[in-house]
């Protein structure tokens, strides 16, 4: 499908106002190019899988929007200019120029792909499905991933913390419960490490599609990786689907507040001696998560590991 792309060059300070004006006049799906790095406060506790390196900020920002072939371009540009006239009364819009171009595809959904390159975690090579295997990593255990719009390239510290724990505890025959599976990266890595079966859940419907595609990319049968959209914490159907007392390992890389709730849910699904590998815990929540484990009689914390600002807690069912 052909799209007309319109790019407004303006100032960094005007971006929020311009974006909300675009929204008011019915423009959906804008794209912002602004070289302001997120502050530590803004990113603290947020899962951001890929943060690109940015050139220096010069106070200039671009806001783009797309119109399809059926759109009344003249009318929309009239509304945009009217909106900009109003905004100009109380903010500096800078150059305020609008450049038009034509594109086959509005590809903002895929722009992040340029920052996702093959990398290794110990002896595992994690590679975007569209890249080739680097010569120097031909001997590594290969995991191919396209997260699509789900979470999980493997680049995030928390995913890597979980992968390192999986390396320690996965054995052949292991059954794995992957809560918050996202792209399926942890379950797929476990299967590549020799696990027998994975059962994955996620609230995000995009995860279900992503897992299917990633299984195919890795040549893994979907009989080894079962996946369901839903919440194991409060949905009895999801609990029953996952089954009880059958897992050697449960892994969950989700925000600390969710891990705290999972601490009371997961033991029912683990075998005696089974491991619960967690991450997604920002360091300021470490104590709260440890307290939740300590209050649970069935689990015993056996290891805590760190990467950057993130924490991973591994426990064993007594
Ligand atoms: C940080 S991502 C982890 C994805 C992948 N496992 C990884 O390690 O890269 C967390 C995922 O958990 C999902 N999620 C959040 N709360 C959940 C819950 N209660 N049950 C299942 N999934 C949940 C989110 O939709 C998201 O896909």
TrEMBL record:
Binding site for S-adenosyl-L-methionine: 159, 180, 202, 253
Catalytic activity: L-lysyl-[protein] + 3 S-adenosyl-L-methionine = N(6),N(6),N(6)-trimethyl-L-lysyl-[protein] + 3 S-adenosyl-L-homocysteine + 3 H(+)
Keywords: Cytoplasm, Methyltransferase, Ribonucleoprotein, Ribosomal protein, S-adenosyl-L-methionine, Transferase
Pfam hit, one: PrmA
Enzyme's top EC category: transferase
InterPro entries for the chain: Ribosomal_L11_MeTrfase_PrmA, Ribosomal_PrmA_MeTrfase, SAM-dependent_MTases_sf
UniProt similarity note: Belongs to the methyltransferase superfamily. PrmA family.
Descriptive protein name: Ribosomal protein L11 methyltransferase
Native source species: Enterocloster alcoholdehydrogenati
């Amino acid at each position: 499908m052909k799209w007309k792309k319109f790019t407004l060059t303006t100032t960094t300070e005007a971006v929020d106002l311009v974006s909300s004006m675009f929204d008011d006049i019915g423009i959906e799906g804008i794209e912002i190019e602004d070289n302001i790095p997120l502050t530590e406060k803004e990113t603290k506790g947020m899962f951001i899988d890929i943060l690109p390196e940015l050139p220096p900020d010069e106070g200039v920002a671009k806001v783009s929007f797309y119109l399809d072939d059926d759109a009344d371009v003249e009318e929309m540009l009239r509304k945009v200019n009217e909106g900009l006239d109003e905004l100009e009364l109380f903010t500096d819009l800078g150059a305020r120029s609008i450049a038009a171009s034509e594109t086959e595809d509005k590809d903002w959904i895929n722009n992040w792909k340029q920052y996702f390159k093959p990398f290794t975690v110990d002896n595992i090579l994690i590679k975007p499905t569209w890249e080739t295997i680097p010569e120097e990593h031909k001997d590594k255990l290969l995991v191919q991933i396209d997260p699509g719009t789900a979470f999980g390239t493997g680049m995030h510290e928390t995913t890597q913390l979980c992968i390192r724990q999986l390396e320690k505890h996965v054995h052949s025959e292991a059954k794995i419960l992957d809560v918050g599976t996202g792209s399926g990266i942890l379950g797929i890595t476990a299967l590549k490490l020799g696990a027998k079966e994975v059962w994955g859940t996620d609230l995000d419907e995009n995860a279900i599609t992503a897992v299917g595609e990633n299984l195919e990319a890795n040549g893994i049968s979907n009989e080894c990786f079962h996946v369901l959209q839903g919440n194991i914490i409060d949905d009895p159907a999801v609990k029953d689907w996952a089954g009880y007392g059958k897992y050697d390992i449960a892994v969950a890389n989700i925000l600390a507040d969710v891990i705290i709730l999972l601490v009371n849910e997961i033991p029912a699904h683990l075998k005696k001696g089974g491991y619960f590998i967690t991450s997604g815990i920002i360091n300021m929540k470490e104590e709260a998560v440890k307290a939740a484990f300590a209050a649970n009689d069935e689990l015993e914390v056996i290891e805590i590991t760190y990467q950057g600002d993130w924490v991973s807690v591994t426990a064993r069912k007594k």
